[in-house]
Amino acid sequence: MLSSYWLSAVISYVLESSIELAIVYLVVKAVMWLKGLHGPSTKSRFLLLALVIPVVISPGVHLIFPWVDRLAISMQIEEALPILNGLRSWEHLAAPFMVIAFILLSGYNLLAGLAVSLRETRTDAKQGWAVSRREQKIVERLAKRFALPHQPLLIVSRRRPATAYSFGWWRPIITLGSECLSSLKADEIEAILAHELAHFKRGDNWRLLLAKTCRNLMFFNPMAYLVYAEFSEACEQSADDLALLVTHEPLALASGLLKFCRMENMHKVPSGSMGFLRRNNQLGCRILRLVNYCEDQELVVASNTLFYSLAITLAVVLSLI
What we know:
Elements: H1 2-35, H2 40-64, H3 68-71, H4 73-80, H5 94-127, H6 133-146, E1 153-157, E2 164-167, E3 173-177, H7 178-183, H8 186-202, H9 204-217, H10 222-247, H11 250-264, E4 274-275, H12 283-291, H13 304-319
Parallel strand pairs: 1-3
Antiparallel strand pairs: 2-3, 2-4
Helix pairs in contact: 1-2, 2-5, 2-9, 2-10, 2-13, 5-9, 6-8, 8-10, 8-11, 9-10, 11-12
């Protein structure tokens, strides 16, 4: 009997989370289109809702406020059709299960990121090259411009000579491959370092942790992977824009992207980090934006009132459907 309940719970979660993901995504895209919100920073915030609401907020509402179930339209329909009564068992079984699974998976991803930080720091401190005074000055200058609370740690890696990525939850740690130092010019190195620090300034490591956890909990839904990919691309473009507000060198970042693509093509970025070039299919779009870059290109920015109002409205409405 218990197995049948869990089977009903799983089926109900798959169906409802898929429907909610589609609804939130369409509503978010419609709101951004109507309000003229086309900037990547705004886009990344709103796309995160499409991943978080079906996995965290909606089950959480049902778990914390069980009386909401009786107000749901679908509950009224099920009371009229007794054969459908079993399909709503997920509020009592799947909702607590999804919340626990989310906490466990988030904890795993967080610990994986911490493990990467410790491993990379210790290993590259022993095997890596010493950071030259030039790169150290660049990092210190960028840290002041970004107003970072902690001084970033720069590691030059021999184990991954053609990669650049950042990790660290409280203190930014940037690993730059030894091949990058010999292949890139000084302004290109500064552009790459600024891009990685921009990820930390924006909190992309935390956003990526949340988005990746929600995506993994909807592993059965191909749309979740598409939304995650769009979210990831928006984060990369947002980091580009924030970096350029500090360096004012879009062409240096574009040329660094091209050179970096040739070097990074055969190297894998560790889990729990933000790579400089996460997907090669983003390359053309990012370079085109950089070539045509202007500092005022994100003219319309969504207010926090609009963002939180939309999030609360979607959570309440989907709980009552």
